[in-house]
């Protein structure tokens, strides 16, 4: 069950990697290298990119760990009380059926 979250993690990592590579390419290819304002802006952009990458990495790990914990707890609950799980599933199915019917 925990493997359900890996594709989302990979997609987020891929998107962030693509954004990083694009930003690095733009920073390398644009502006007058001797311009003082360009150098300052490039420095700030590189620092911001580094900060965002580190924050997203830690946030993604944290969210995945929390989601895995919730999945384990739900799995344990359903194994301990299977009829409650069946009842909740039936209720959710009924509600979704009524909403789709409209």
UniProtKB/TrEMBL annotation:
Cellular component aspect of the GO annotation: plasma membrane
Pfam families for the chain: DUF883, DUF883_C
Residue ranges of every copy of the DUF883 domain listed in the record: 11-61, 74-100
TM segment ranges: 82-100
Record carries keyword Iron: no
Location in or out of the cell: Cell inner membrane
Alphabetic keyword roster: Cell inner membrane, Cell membrane, Membrane, Transmembrane, Transmembrane helix
MF annotations from Gene Ontology: ribosome binding
Entry membrane topology: Single-pass membrane protein
Membership in a protein family: Belongs to the ElaB/YgaM/YqjD family.
Record's protein name: Protein ElaB
Source species: Rouxiella badensis
